[in-house]
Automatic annotation (TrEMBL):
InterPro entries: SBP_3_CS, Solute-binding_3/MltF_N. Residues 26-248 form the Solute-binding protein family 3/N-terminal domain. This is Amino acid ABC transporter substrate-binding protein, PAAT family. SUPFAM superfamilies: Periplasmic binding protein-like II. Residues 1-21 form the signal peptide. It comes from Pseudomonas panipatensis.
Length: 250
């Protein structure tokens, strides 16, 4: 009887350890939830989009469960480092400044920055035309930084907490134009809200590398890189890409 109890105790300990191991393998994905078609909230309250599909495909390759956690864009890196989630999959540009706070995977797509403005306006992108114009962008983004670095003495810059709020001001006439990621703009221009607007000029920056962020020194980065290579090689990435865009963004 005593030995049987020992067996039961040992089995219970093993189960407890196993349960802990499974729990430890569950990853929390941080994203914004306000950046369609890359990440947004659908009518049922679920977080959806290109970023989420890519994240779930990576989790499947790594054979781990994943939950999605939303965060305000401005605080998403501090939230990662505070361990509110384990990785950021939120169309985050890889920059030297951000590399000081987090580590990035290899890029999972490449973006461009381009202006949009009303179709009815002969909007130009040279400084002479832009002088005195009001241009919007999302705060703490490459677009916002580009405007501040290149046009701060030319235009009035208005920065927004979300891309959607920048579009609302553009639609209401409070902005002359918006600078943002081309592929986000592409999706918005197809919508009813964006039907009276169009791209203007050529992209002002066309080498915006987008990566997944993890905490500094986290070995999860190597696992994500291996999984990313797998989904590209086996066609999973292309299937996700084609769901959202009629061209490759890889």
């Amino acid at each position: 009887m005593k030995s049987y109890k020992k067996i039961l105790l040992a089995a219970a300990a093993t189960l407890a350890f196993g349960a802990h191991a499974v729990a430890a393998e569950k990853l929390r994905i941080g994203t914004e939830g306000a950046y369609p078609p890359f990440n947004g909230i659908d009518a049922s309250g679920q977080v959806v989009g290109f970023d989420i599909d890519i994240a779930k495909a990576l989790c499947a390759k790594m054979k781990t469960e994943c939950d999605v956690v939303t965060s305000d864009w401005d605080g998403i890196i501090p939230a990662l480092n505070a361990k509110k989630f384990d990785l950021i999959v939120a169309s985050m540009s890889i920059t030297d400044e951000r590399k000081q706070a987090v580590d990035f995977t290899a890029p999972y797509y490449t973006n461009k920055l381009q202006f949009v403005a009303p179709k009815s306006v002969d909007f130009k992108t040279d400084n002479a035309y832009l002088k005195g114009k009001v241009i919007g962008a999302q705060r703490a983004t490459i677009a916002g930084t580009w405007l501040e670095d290149h046009l701060s003495d030319v235009v009035t810059i208005k920065l927004y907490d979300t891309q959607e709020n920048a579009y609302l001001d553009l639609s209401s006439g409070r902005l002359d134009g918006v600078l943002a990621d081309k592929f986000v703009q592409f999706d918005w221009l197809k919508s009813d809200a964006g039907k009276d607007f169009e791209f203007k000029g050529q992209p002002v920056y066309d080498n915006d590398k987008i990566g997944i962020a993890v905490r500094k020194g986290d070995p999860l980065r190597d696992k994500l890189n291996a999984a990313l290579k797998e989904i590209v090689d086996d066609g999973t990435y292309k299937k996700i890409n084609d769901k959202y865009f009629p061209f490759s963004i890889y």
